C-alpha cells in the first residue's frame, strides 16, 4: 500500500517521525555544506583568475608628444606578459583541487588549493604593484612607454587569488582530520 502525505498523517505519530528524518537527509551535515561553499568559491576564483589573465592587465596613457620617440606602448594582457601563463596553470590546479575536495573530502586538496591561490595572489600583487614603476620587472619586460595604470584583468586575477585563499581556508576548516584506527 502506497501512502501520500494525507494518509500518513492519519496514522498517529507517523507524520511527525517521517518529516524530521527527511529534512536531515536533504540538508546534509555542516561539514558537507561548508565544503560545498568552499568548492563554489574555489571554482569561481579559478574562473576569475583565468578570465583575468586573458584580459588587459595594463592601460597606457600616452605621454606628451616628443619628436622622434614612440608615443606609447599598447595595453597588454597577462598572457603577453608571460605571467598570465603561470596564473592559468595555477588556476587549473585550483579548479582540480576543488573538484578533488568535492569528490574525495580530504584536506590534502584544500591544502593544494591554498598553495595554488598563494601563487595566483603573489603573481597578481607583485605585477599590480610594479605596473606604475618604470624600473619594475614587468615594465622592463613589456617595454612600457607612457603612464601605465592597472586594468581590469590584473584586478580580476587579484580578486581570484584572494577568493581562492578564502575558499581554501574554508575547505581546510570544513575537512576535519580523521584519526587513524
How would you describe this structure to a colleague?
The protein has about 180 residues and is mainly alpha-helical. Helix content is about 65%, strand content about 5%. A two-stranded antiparallel sheet has the order 1-2. Helix 3 (about 30-55) packs antiparallel against helix 4 (about 85-105) and helix 3 (about 30-55) packs antiparallel against helix 7. The longest helix has 25 residues, at about 30-55. It is elongated. The two termini are about 45 Å apart. The mean pLDDT is about 80.
- Which sequence of strands runs across the widest sheet? 1-2
Number of strands: 2
The helix-and-strand class reads: mainly alpha
Terminal-residue CA separation: 44 Å
Rg on CA atoms, Å: 25 Å
Low-confidence stretches: none
The count of helical stretches stands at 7
> What global shape is seen?
elongated
- Estimate the helix proportion, in percent: 55-70%
The main sheet comes to: 2 strands, antiparallel
SSE sequence, one letter per element: HHHEHHHEH
User: DSSP strand (E) fraction?
Assistant: under 5%
Q: What's the pLDDT, averaged over the residues?
A: 79
Amino acid at each position: 500500500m502506497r501512502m501520500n502525505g494525507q494518509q500518513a498523517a492519519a496514522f498517529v505519530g507517523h507524520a511527525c517521525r517521517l518529516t524530521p528524518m527527511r529534512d536531515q537527509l536533504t540538508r546534509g551535515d555542516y561539514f558537507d555544506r561548508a565544503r560545498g561553499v568552499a568548492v563554489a568559491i574555489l571554482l569561481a576564483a579559478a574562473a576569475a583568475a583565468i578570465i583575468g589573465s586573458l584580459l588587459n592587465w595594463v592601460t597606457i596613457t600616452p605621454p606628451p608628444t616628443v619628436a622622434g620617440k614612440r608615443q606609447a606602448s599598447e595595453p597588454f594582457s597577462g598572457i603577453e606578459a608571460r605571467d598570465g601563463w603561470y596564473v592559468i596553470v595555477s588556476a587549473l590546479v585550483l579548479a582540480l583541487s576543488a573538484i578533488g575536495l568535492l569528490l574525495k573530502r580530504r584536506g590534502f586538496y584544500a591544502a593544494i588549493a591554498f598553495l595554488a591561490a598563494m601563487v595566483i595572489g603573489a603573481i597578481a600583487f607583485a605585477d599590480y604593484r610594479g605596473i606604475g614603476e618604470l624600473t619594475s620587472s614587468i615594465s622592463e619586460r613589456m617595454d612600457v612607454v607612457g603612464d601605465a595604470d592597472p586594468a581590469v584583468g590584473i584586478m580580476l586575477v587579484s580578486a581570484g587569488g584572494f577568493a581562492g585563499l578564502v575558499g581554501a581556508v574554508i575547505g581546510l576548516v570544513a575537512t576535519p582530520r580523521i584519526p587513524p584506527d
